[in-house]
Write a structure and sequence with these properties.
With about 120 residues, the protein is mainly β. The protein contains no helices and nine strands. The mean pLDDT is about 90.
């Protein structure tokens, strides 16, 4: 598979004292994708989108927010899978991780907080 889902920019440089970073989440496929965003550090990072649907070739704005704290190597994982119904509720799809399917996977974004 190629790149089905990506972020632009692909890295997230945020200061350790806190701040926000805006990104474009892009569906590069000809199919609807359901997604779930997970963080390795929920105490310092949050996002404006946790679950959702990216329609065919759609772009959504993802805002990553960091609270002040000690910098460490963190990451966001965007899990995704193909769906047929663009009005489906994506939350139950990810109850047990990424659902198996022809078009499913994960995209990882490194979070690099600097002092």
């Amino acid at each position: 598979m190629g790149v089905e889902l990506s972020l632009d920019p692909p890295v997230c440089p945020i200061q350790a004292h806190g701040g926000t970073s805006k990104h474009k989440m892009i569906n590069h496929t000809d199919r609807h994708l359901a997604y779930k965003i997970k963080s390795s550090n929920n105490s310092h990072y949050s996002v404006n989108l946790i679950f959702g649907i990216l329609k065919v070739c759609e772009v959504k704005e993802l805002v990553i927010t960091r609270k002040a704290g000690k910098p460490q190597a963190d990451k966001l994982i965007i899990q995704y899978c193909q769906i047929n119904d663009e009005n489906a509720d994506p939350k139950p799809l990810f109850a047990n991780g990424v659902p198996p399917g022809e078009l499913s996977g994960e995209t990882t974004i490194k979070l690099s907080a600097a002092e």
